[in-house]
Specification:
The complex is a heterodimer of chains A (419) and B (115).
Chain A: H1 2-37, H2 40-61, H3 67-86, H4 94-102, H5 115-122, H6 132-141, H7 145-151, H8 156-173, H9 182-204, H10 212-231, H11 236-250, H12 275-290, H13 296-313, H14 318-332, H15 335-349, H16 351-357, H17 371-383, H18 387-400, H19 404-418
Helix pairs in contact in A: 1-2, 1-3, 2-3, 5-6, 6-9, 7-8, 9-10, 9-11, 10-11, 11-12, 11-13, 12-13, 13-14, 14-15, 15-16, 15-17, 16-17, 17-18, 18-19
Chain B: E1 2-9, H1 11-16, H2 19-38, E2 42-47, E3 55-60, E4 63-68, E5 77-85, H3 89-98, H4 101-104, E6 105-111
Antiparallel strand pairs in B: 1-5, 1-6, 2-5, 3-4
The chains are: A mainly alpha (419), B alpha+beta (115).
Amino acid sequence: MQNRMNSQEGDEQARSTADAVARRSYGKLVAYLAARTHDVAAAEDALSEAFASALADWPDKGCPANPEGWLLTVARRKLIDRVRGARRHQLVSDELAMMEEALAAPAIGEIPDERLAMMLACAHPAIDAGIRAPLILQAVLGLDAKRIASAFLTSPAAMGKRLVRAKDKIRQAGIPFRVPGHEELAGRLGTVLDAIYAAFSEGWSDPGGGDDARRDLTEEALFLASLVAQMLPEEPEALGLLALLLHAEARRRGRRDGNGEFVPLADQDPNLWEKQQIGKAEALLRRASAMGSIGRYQLEAAIQSAHVHRCRTGTANWAQVVKLYDALFGITGSPVVLINRALALAELRGASAALDAMPDLDADPRLTEYQPYWAARAALLAKTAAHAEARKAYEIAIGLERDPAVRRFLERRLAALTA
Amino acid sequence: MQYMLLLHADEAGFTRMTPAEQQQGMAAYVAYGEALAKAGAAKGSNRLQPVATATTVRVVDGKTQVLDGPYADSKEQLGGYFLIDVPDLDAALSWAARCPGASHGVVEVRPIWSM
């Protein structure tokens, strides 16, 4: 019985150490292995085998002092074995010797961080444009095809196939893992930032924290955004994205009341917001705008900044917000921007003008399944006293929402309408 | 890594040029080949005769079929290649962009299948 307790404790300790390493260093280890072999899939497989070995070994032998180094050593050996196995019938190739050399162990505790180079390789123009962001998320965060498919609204099977194909292309075409010069970086960086933002949004959709895996995703995205901002301090959009995520993160506590119910921005208590994070976001945004090259993420961060300023001071700044949305629409041309712009416009010119400014369903049929479109429409219709139409729009919005807290919020709005 | 740069172009473009222009065009290819050699990236290259000289062969049910003409009947035809040895795809792409063929046609970059 005593032994059994010990082994159970050992199991638990091994698991929690492995979990912590996975969260802290998964992408770093994959990037290190893949940068030296050009083979992302093999690096992922070798690392997951190394994690399996860890869970088998550590409970008995105890967790190593440098778990990252331990995992890297095991994964490296698996990778080399794999190449050897595949080339059994040939002379020992130069390639194997080169690979063994390339994979030579770094000094303990000094695994170089090549995550940015790996993300930029995934964003290479030689990779199919639609798969770049999913590929980045899988390679650096270790998300499986199913999770990624749900974030990008495609089928897991199709997503899995496209991810495999993209990794094959990196290996076979010899796409390098490196940070390119400024001119080339500009285009690829956008893809990397979009992927990080997609990961953040996927995690953000469950701010109540009911789903740990999702919540982790916002932390991972924040981590990646600060990594990119740190490695590319002269790229204003990298700073803009970090500012945007910090603004959103700062308001996390304000988005739920004591009962876990959703609180819209206008009703949030600014005292619940994290002042330090807001300060950091504002400083980043100032630094970015001083570089004189505006972009999508700087504008989105500026909009968040304007919201914070209004809520804190009580001074209406809707004209400024609408202007920022205009500039953002000029860059993205996205109907999502038009929806948010319409909500700001309602504060300035009234709900009827805002309804006229909403994007057209015929022009973009995808909006039919987009919850925020229906929620915005319902709110605007309610203000114009078109209650029957508002009711219908609320019902569709409720039907499309997957977060129960937001669903209850919309239901309350709908009930208020009927009364 | 070795890459094959496959040069596809509309052959009629060349025949439409004046002899002086043709000579200039050829000179650009010679210069390009020299630059590749100087960089230690050149592994081999050849210009192909026009598609009118092409003959296509396939074996169906054990019977050899020989046909006059190129395999793909498109406006732009394979007209030559450079085989290069460079560290990675980015290096191959920048050599492809320098190739005169990229300005009057298309250069397809294909990694060599290493055995």
